Amino acid sequence: MLRISKDYVVDILAKENKPAAFCKSGETVVFETRDCYDDSLTSEERPLGDGTRVYENPVTGPLYVEGANPGDILKAEILDIKLRSWGAMRTSPTGGEFKERFDKRIARIFPLEGDTIAYDDKLTLKLDPMIGVIGTAPEGEGVYTHTPGEHGGNMDCRKIVAGSVLYLPVEVPGALFALGDVHALMGDGEVLICGLETAAEVTVRFTVVKDTKLPTPFLSCRGRVMTIQSALTLDEAGHLAANKMYDFVKSVTGGDDVHTGMLMSLVSDMAVCQVVDPKRTVRVEIPEEVLAAYGYRLP
Ligand code: CA
Ligand code: CA
Predict the structure, then answer these.
(1) Which residue of 171, 211, 252, 265 is 20 to 30 Å from 22, comparing CA positions?
(2) Distance between CA atoms of 161 and 164, rounded to whole angstroms?
(3) Which of 44, 55, 72 lies closest to 12 in space, CA to CA?
């Protein structure tokens, strides 16, 4: 199986990036990822890291998918996420919902014990590994891996897990896909500023989907489908995510605006992915069985 080592990382998703590897549609690829601290935050005694950090929020890749051309959709099936044996977190005096409460950076290292961590001597938390940054290269200027957008990127959507299928736009030849910033666990919002940051091996199967319209980035996870949209404010991101799903539902059901609006209000859930990246990210979910009732199946 094709494998891209963590020697091949970038911190910008851009059409100028040289491919780290090439694959065909239908092929499965393993990505070895570094954590968001470029694997430099290794000790609680050194919350600023060990001095080896080169990349901000590195992603592994990019992968050139042969036959993927602008206008196509890249279907990325997340088959497996294998975590390193430990995760790291760090407080921030400059970002996140609690920045006023910290005057310096404080780090914690958590050993991962199977699929749990001991948060303290009372609380055990079950892990739910997810991918923070995952995307293709945008057609215009490159986007740093701090920022989410139409191309995917730093969406920090905790529904991007093993078993999920993510549909991304192809804007440049080969798509130039990359991923990284894996979290062993994160709540909606990522309110402190980080998840339980860790390195991982992520297995993904790629398919180029032609002549199909989907409101990308579009995700299928655990029986639900969702639009994921990012904007400078949560209000704007929520408006975008809801309306992208509205247009999609309307086209699937063939209903009018009244039918679509009422259905959306009955079955869609709006949730915050993250509030800490340069843009905020909101998703709007509906049960996949709503689409099935109208005979729709995802490509
Ligand atoms: Ca992130
Ligand atoms: Ca992160």
Answers:
(1) 211
(2) 5
(3) 55
Query: Which protein residues have their CB within 5 A of the ion that is ligand 1?
Result: 132, 154, 156, 181
Task: Measure 146 CA to ligand 1 centroid, in angstroms.
Answer: 7
Ligand 1 centre and the CA of 268: distance in Å?
A: 25
100 and 193 Cβ atoms separated by less than 8 Å = no
SS3 276: coil
Domains of the chain: 218-293 (3.10.28.20)
Chain centroid, CA 191 distance in Å = 16
Q: One-letter amino acid identity for 223?
A: G
Residue 93 CA, chain-centre distance (Å), reads: 25
Angle at 21 between CA 20 and CA 22, to 5 degrees: 145
If pLDDT is split at 50, 70 and 90, which confidence band does 154 have?
A: very high
Render pLDDT for 185-241 as a digit per residue (tens, 0 to 9). 999 999 999 999 999 999 999 999 999 999 999 999 999 999 999 999 999 999 999
How far does the centroid of ligand 1 lie from the alpha carbon of residue 296, in Å? 32
For residue 220, what are its two tokens? Answer: 């299928």
